[in-house]
Amino acid sequence: MLEVQGITQRFGGVTALEDVSFRVSEGAITGIIGPNGAGKTTLFNIVTGIYIPTSGMVHLQGKNVTRFAPERLASLGMVRTFQNIELFSKMTVLENVMVGLHTKGKSGIIASSLRLPWQMAEERRLRERALHWLEFTGISDLADTEAGNLPFGKGRLLETARAMALEPKVILMDEPAAGLNSRETLDLARLIHKIRESGVTVALVEHDMELVMDICDSIVVLNLGRKLAEGTPREIQENPEVISAYLGEG
Ligand SMILES: Nc1ncnc2c1ncn2[C@@H]1O[C@H](COP(=O)(O)OP(=O)(O)OP(=O)(O)O)[C@@H](O)[C@H]1O
Questions:
Q1: Is 84 touching ligand 1 by the criterion CB < 6 Å?
Q2: Is the CB–ligand 1 distance for residue 34 below 6 Å?
Q3: Superkingdom, according to UniProt (predicted)?
């Protein structure tokens, strides 16, 4: 589904990634882990079109998407969530999801404010779609709350709802558990399973090792810009090189 081949990324004299290759299989949950500075964020930014790599390629469903911008990747079915949640704080929870849907609908947000009958019908349709994704992520009771007033954990669910509303084939999540308490992390694990069950492939960069080991089918370990290991959670946990990379960290 998603294939990363021989990615190298240099920033001036710093080599953030060196010849990294791996695949994200369709229908799987893939985790990307590694000690601080391993290159996870850089890799994520390359895959999601924020950086163009120094060399190497990214293929999405067989198509070379290496130089594609994030919007173009989204239209091909690849969406992402951010480590620092990016919401419209003055809009309601429902409106935050609807804004994303407007780009998919017939009328733009300005045209729809004219409130012609067909536009109102479309508005209703978008509202229903948006509500569906709030229900999916378990925050429909907060539909009318201003996004800026949401507790952090709910904000993360809203961001996930907004990404899912684009009906992606693959969702990339940047440290989804960062800042969540243990209860919220459990809910997140359930939600990620639910996303996968709905037929969407999931890839995530994550520091929470318990979560990664619990939910991932496959794990890619980066260390000092190189791929150190790739395998099932069990294989990774038993890999001596992985153990020493993590022990060496502190
Ligand atoms: N824009 C940049 N300019 C220069 N160096 C960078 C840039 N971005 C990342 N680096 C360097 O690349 C290396 C990998 O950084 P990256 O942020 O990708 O690691 P990470 O695994 O995401 O780390 P963390 O877990 O701490 O977020 C580091 O040595 C970092 O200093």
A1: no
A2: yes
A3: Bacteria
CATH: 3.40.1360.10, 3.30.565.10, 2.60.40.420, 3.40.50.300. Which one for 2-86+169-249?
A: 3.40.50.300
Give the pair of three-digit tokens for residue 73.
Answer: 């990747």
Closest ligand 1 atom to residue 35 Cα is: 25
137 lines ligand 1 (CB under 6 A): no
- Can you give the residue ranges of every domain in the chain? 2-86+169-249, 88-149
pLDDT tens, N- to C-terminus, the chain (250 residues): 999 999 999 999 999 999 999 999 999 999 999 998 999 999 999 999 999 999 999 999 999 999 999 999 999 999 999 877 788 999 999 999 998 786 555 555 555 566 666 677 778 888 999 999 999 999 999 999 999 999 999 999 999 999 999 999 999 999 999 999 999 999 999 999 999 999 999 999 998 989 999 999 999 999 999 999 999 999 999 999 998 888 765 4
Assigned token pair, 162: 């907004």
Listed residue (30, 6, 16) closest to 204, CA to CA: 30
CA-nearest residue, atom 18 of ligand 1: 39
Does any ligand 1 atom lie closer than 6 A to the CB of residue 52?
no
Contact 153, 189 (CB under 8 A): no
With a CB cutoff of 8 Å and minimum separation 6, the contacts of 200 are 164, 168, 169, 170, 171
For residue 51, the 8-state DSSP code is S
